[in-house]
Amino acid sequence: MAAQSGLSHPAPGRGGVSVFPPVPLSAEAAPFTPMKPSGWRPGSQSEAEKLFSNCAIKLRALRADSVQLKEELNLLFDQLLSENYNRTFEPAVSIRPEDVCSLLKHASCLVPLTQEHLVIKLCQVVHHLLNQLKVIMDEHTLDVLVNYTAGALKVCSTWTHTDVLLALSTVVYGNGPQCHQHLSDLLGEEGFLLQYSSPSQSNMELRRVALTCMANICLRIPGQPPLDDQYRSVCFRAFLKTLQSTKPPDTDELYYCMVIQAALKGLQCCLSGGKWKFGGGEELGSVLAALKRLMFQGAPGVIVEWPAVLYPAPLPQYESVSAAKTAESPKSLEPPKDAAVPGKASGNKKRKSKGKGKKTKTEESRGDEREEGDAETVPAPPKGRAEEKQPASFLYPSWKLNSSDSEFSDLEGNAQSKLRVNHGRVRQGALHCLLAVVKAVEKRTLYGYWSSFIPDSPIGGPPPLTLLTIILKDLSPKVRLCALQVLSAMLDGSRQFLAVAEDTASPRTSYTPFSFTLATAIRELHRTLSLALLAETSPQTLTQVIKCLAYLIANAPYHRLRPGLLTLLWKQIRPYVRHRDVNVRVSVLTLYGALVTTQAPLPEVLLLLQQPDHSSSTGAFTPQDSGLSWRQRDGVSSPSRTPVTHSQRSSSTHSPHIPHTPGEEDSRRLWLLQLCVTLVTQPREDQSDSEGVGGGAALEPPPVRLEALQVLSHLVRGYFPLTQHYLCEIGQVSARCLGETDTSIQLHGAKLLEEFGSGIIQQYRAENNVPESSRVPISQVVQFWSEVLSGPLNRALQNEQHPTLQASACDTLSSILPQAFAQLPDKTQLMCITVLLGLTYIENYLVKTAAVRALGIYVLFPCLREDVMFVADTANTILAALDDRSTNVRAKAAWSLGNLTDTLIVNMESVGVDFQEELSDMLLLKMLQAATRAAADKDRVKSNAVRALGNLLHFLRQSQMTRPAFQQPLEDAVRALVKTVQSEATMKVRWNACYALGNAFRNPALPLDSAAWSHEAFSALCHVVTSCKNFKVRIKSAAALAVPAHRGCYGDTERFTRVWRSLATALENSEDTNDFLEYRYSASLRHTLSQALLHLLSVSQSQDMLGLSASLASEEGTGIREHLIKYLRAEEGGGEEAEKDIRGESLHPRERIGSVEQILIRIKGLKVEGEEERGKEMVIHFLEDLIKICEETWKNTQTNREVTESKADHI
Question: Fewest C-beta in 10 Å: which of 14, 36, 451, 536?
Fold first, then answer.
C-alpha cells in the first residue's frame, strides 16, 4: 500500500459519515466539542466500558447451578477477550480496578477446575484484563487468583498449563512478597515452576512461561519490600542454570532464544530486587561467563569455545577459536539448526546499486521487524569480501558495511529476520543483566573481571571479544547502546582503581607493570570510543558514546599518562556542538565539563583552551552531516549526504595534532567560554524542524543552555586564571540568567556568580601565593559586585516563590571577597546583612541553611568582626537556628557558631579586653549553653559544636567564671567535651573535641588545678593518646596535653606522672597499627609526642623528679631517648598533622638542642632533698647524655657538609 504524503481529507467515520461535519462559522455557533472517530464525547462511556459493564452484570447474574452455565460463560469470556482495553488505543477507557477484581473473583468461583476449556479461557481473560488495564489488585483478589491458578496446575492436564502459567505470571507481577504463603508450592523442591523451568523440560513454550512467571515473582516494585532471599536464591539458580544450558537438539532456535530472554529478564529482576550477595566460589564468575557468551548470541562470525567460568585476573582470558571454519561462507541458504550465525549472507552475489530504488517485496515484508529490531535485518557482508575491497575494514564497524543483497525468499527472509531480531534481544537482555551485576557487585570485586570485558591492547590477530567489540561491531543500535551503558557503569566511580595507571616512562622489558597495562587499557578505550563516535548514526547511541567518554575522562589519571589523548578527542568532539539532536549537544557539553574538571588545571587542557577558534559557528558540522572520507565506500559517497565545503574540511582536518603554545595576541582568547556564552545568550541559527517552529529565532533549548552554564562554572573553578579576564562578560551572562523566568536558568546563573566569587577569594588567600599582578584588581572586584548587587540578584534574594533560588543567591552573597566587601558602599553592605538576617526566619530549611552559612562567613570579615552589634545580632540568629527541627539547619548553625567563636578569639588577641567587656555576659552564657546542648546532637552538628565550646572556654574571663550563673554551665561544657572525646563518634568529631580541650587549656583563668572536672579531662586525653585507633586523634590529644603553660595546671604529682607515662607509652606504640592508612601518620605522632614530653620536662618541679627518673631509668627510658634523639636531629619530618610549634619552638635542629639545654639549666636550679636529689641527678644525666649525642652528630654533620662544599668548589 502506498504511503500517504502531505495533508489528506479527514477519514470517514463508521458508516461512511465524516467524523467532523461542516459547521458554518458564526458568533452564534455552539462551542466546539472534540469527538473521537467512534463518536465519543467527554463524560460518555466508551464501547469497551459498555461491553465490560454488560459482561460484568451478566456474569454476576450467573449461578453455579445454572443449566446453561457453560455456554453463557463461554460467550461472556469471548466477548471480554474480543475487546481492546489498551489505553494507548483507547484513552477513554476508565474501568475501575475494583470492578475488574470483582469480576475475576466471581468468575473463578463459577469455573470448576474440571472444565479445562473454560479454565483456559478464564486464564486468558485474567491475563487480558490485568495486562491491558494495568490493574493493581487488592490482597484478597491476589490470594483468590493465585489459589485458583495453583489449583489448576495441580488438577488440570498438562496441555492447559501454558495458559495457566501465563495468567499466573500476570497475577504475580510485582506481587512476589505478597504471595509468600503460595511460594512453597510454586518454588519448592517439587514446585511446578521449578519443574517446568528445568533444562530437562522439552516443551519450550511451557519452559518460557514458567521462567517468565518466576521473573515476575522476583520483580520488585519501588516502595515494596524485596522477595525473601530464600526464594530469590532458588529463582537465581534456576535462571543461571537455564543460561548455562545448551540448546536441546531438534529445538527451534527461535523458541530457544525466547527461553533465554525470559531467563535473562528473571536474572535481571533477581539482581535488581534489593541487595544481592553472590555466593562463594565461582558463582559470580559463572554468571559473568554466561552473560559474556550471550552478549554475542547470533553475532556474525563469532564461533568460539566460551569458558564456563571467568576468574578475577589482571590479564584477559581469551576465548579459544572453535574448530569450525569461521571464514567460510555457508554454501546453503538455509543454515544448520545449531549454527551460531543463522542467515549469514554469501559473498558470491554482486553488490547492488545503493540508489533510492523501489523496495523489494522482502524489504516491504520486513518493515515491522526492521523498526523493532533497529536495522538488524540488514545482513553483514562476508569477511572475505570486506577484506578484499577494504584492507582496513577491521577498524570499520561491521554494521556500517551494509549489503543490500537479497538471497532469501519472502518466507525465508521473514524467518531469518525474526531470528535476527530475537538474537538481538538476547544480546540486549544479557547486557541489561550485566549492567545489573555491575550495579550490584562491589566495585573492588568487579575490578578483577575488567580484563574480560575491556581489552588492554589494540585489536591484532584474533580480536578479543569484549564490550568494545559490541560497541563497534553489533548490528543493532539498541545493543550498542546497552553495551555503552554497561561500560559507563563500569567506568563510573573507578577513579581509585585507574589512579595507578601510568605510561609516562617506558615499560621494562622483563615484565609489564600493572600500571602500564591499565594505561594501555585507557588508551584502547579512547581509540575504540573515538571510532564509535565517528561511525555512529543513531542519535541515542551517539549520545551514550559521548557520555561514556565523559565517564572515562572523569576517572582516568591523565596527569600520569603521556599527553595527546585529550588533544585528539578535543578536536574530534568539537563539531558535534552543532549537531541537530539536542541530546547529542547536551552530552557534548557534559564531555567538555568533564574535560575542564578532571585534575584541573591539567597542562594539556590548559593549552587546548587557549587554541584559537579556527571554525566559525555557522560553518560547524558533524561527521553525520557531511560526506567525509570515512563515509565513502568504494570511492562513491552516499547521495543523501551533503558534500563538504572547503572551509568545513579545513576547519576539521587542518588543526595541528599537538596544541601549540599560544602567543600574546590570543593568550586571553577562550573559545570554549565564548561558545558557552553564545549558547546561553544567542539565538540558535540552524534550527531543526522540531525547534523554533515560529517565525522568530529562538534560543537554544533549556537543557543545552543549562549544560553550557555548567561548563562555564567548571571552567571558572578549574581554570580561573584564564577566565578572570572575562569578568564583565561573565557578570553580564549571570545577570541575564538571573533576569529570566526559568528558575533552572536563574539557579545556574547564581551558581556561576558564586564560582567566580570563590575563584577571586582563592586568589587573595595568602597560602596560595598568587602575585599581586596576577590577581583581579580590587577596584574591578568592587565594581563587579556593585553591579551584581544592584541588579537581578537582589530580586532573586527576595523571590519567596522559589526558595531554592533564594538559597543559591545566599551562597552567591557569601562568595564576596572580604576586601571588596569593605569597599562597597555602606548601604550595599547594610542591604546584604539585613537580607541575610531576615532570611534566617524563612520557614524553608534550604533558605535558612544558606542564610545562616552566609552569616557564618560574614562574621569572619575583618570589616565586620569587630562590630559588636553585628556579632551580637549574628549570634542571636545562630542560637535560634540551633533549635531548628531540621538537622541541616542545625549543622550549618553549629558551623557558623564555630566561626563566630573563632572571631571572638581573634578579637580577644587583637582588640583585647575592650571587646570582651563590650560583649554581653548573658549572650556568652546563652552561646555556652547552646553549644553544650548541640554537643549531644548528631555527629554533623556535634563536630562544630565542640569547636565552639573550646573557643568559648578560651574566651571567658576570670570575672565571668567566678559568677554563680557561669559555674554549672562551665562544668557542663567541659564534661560534654570529655564525653565526646571518650565516645564512639566519628574520628572527625573526636579530633575536634581533643582540639577543643587543648584550646580551653590555653585560658589561664581556667581552674585546671582545683576543678573537679579537670581530672576527667586529663584522664580522657591520656586514654585517647594511648588507645585510639586513629593516629590523627592521638596527635591532637598529645598536643592538648602539652598546652598547659604552668606546672600547677597538671595538678598533683600523681596526675603529672600519669600524663608522662601515657605520652611515653604512646611513643613506644607509635608504630603499632594494622591499618596502613594510619601508619603514614606515625612520624607526625612521634614528632608531637616528643614535643609534649620535652614540654613536661620544661615545667616539671622537684616533686616530679622521682617519677621522671623511674621512667627514664627503665626500659621505657631507652625508647624515649631514641625517639628524642631522632626528634632533635630532625630525622623525621613532623608532617602536616604534627603540632609544628607547640610552644613557639623552631624546627631547626640546632635550636631544638638549645631548648633542651634551657630545660637542663632550669632543672639544675631546682632545690630538692633526699630521694628527690637522686631522681634529679638521673634526669640531669639523661638530658646531658641526650645533648652530648646530638652535639656530636651536629658537629659531624657540619664537618661533612664543609668537606663536601670544599670539594665542590675545587672541582
Answer: 14
SS3 554: helix
Residue owning grid cell 466546539: 32
Burial of 491 per CB tally in 10 Å (0-12, 13-18, 19+): buried
Backbone angle region of 301, left / alpha / beta, with phi > 0 → left and psi within -120 to 50 → alpha: left
Residues 542-563: b if buried by 16+ CB within 10 A, e if exposed:
bbbbbbbbbbbbbbbbbebbeb
Chain-centroid distance, C-alpha 393: 37
The list of the chain residues with pLDDT below 70 reads: 1-45, 87-92, 274, 279-281, 314-413, 457-462, 507-510, 613-668, 686-697, 1076, 1131-1147, 1194, 1197-1211
683 pairs with which residues across the strands? 699
SS3 letters across 555-622 = HCCHHHCCCCHHHHHHHHHHHHHHCCCHHHHHHHHHHHHHHCCCCCCCHHHHHHHCCCCCCCCCCCCC
Contacts of 281 (CB under 8 A, 6+ apart): none
Q: Does residue 238 contact residue 214 with C-beta atoms inside 8 Å?
A: yes
At 115, the amino acid letter reads: Q
Tell me the β-bridge partners of 305: 320
Give the whole-angstrom CA distance, residue 758 versus residue 766.
Answer: 14
| Residue whose C-alpha cell reads 531470528 in the numeric block | 419
DSSP 305: E
Q: Which amino acid is at 529?
A: L
Quote the pLDDT of residue 652. Answer: 36
d(CA 529, CA 526): 5
Q: CA neighbours within 13 Å on the CB side: how many for 81?
A: 15
Q: Are 749 and 738 in contact (CB under 8 A)?
A: yes
Residues 34-82: pLDDT tens digits?
444 444 444 456 777 888 888 889 888 888 777 788 888 889 989 888 8
Return the C-alpha cell found at 40: 465519543
Specify the pLDDT at position 182.
82
For residue 580, the one-letter residue type is R
Mean pLDDT of the chain: 80
Cα 414 to chain centroid distance, Å, stands at: 44
Q: Which of 76, 67, 85, 71 is nearest to 127 (CA)?
A: 85
CA distance 534 to 537: 9
Written as nine digits, the cell of 155 is 488438577
**CA–centroid distance for 1015 within its chain:** 48
pLDDT at position 220 is 85
Supply 640's cell numbers: 543523501
Cell of 1012: 573537679
Give kind and range of the element (H or E) at residue 745: helix 743-764
Helical axes 410-440 vs 477-491, angle rounded to 10°: 10
663: CB partners within 8 A, 6+ apart: none
DSSP 235: H
Distances in whole angstroms, Cα of residue 651 to Cα of each of 610, 614, 645: 16, 6, 10
Q: Quick check: 104 and 145 in contact, CB under 8 A?
A: yes
Contact 129, 135 (CB under 8 A): yes
Q: Which residues pair with 320 in a beta bridge?
A: 305
Distance (Å, whole) CA 762 – CA 775: 10
Cα–Cα separations (whole angstroms), residue 803 to 646, 738, 794, 796, 836:
52, 14, 14, 9, 14
First to last CA, the chain: 98
Separation between Cα atoms, residue 687 and residue 618, nearest integer Å: 12
- Kindly report, residue by residue over 523-556, the tens digit of the pLDDT: 999 999 999 999 998 999 999 999 999 999 999 9
Q: How many residues does the chain have?
A: 1211
φ/ψ of 320, rounded to 5, equals -85, 140
Q: Are 808 and 754 in contact (CB under 8 A)?
A: yes
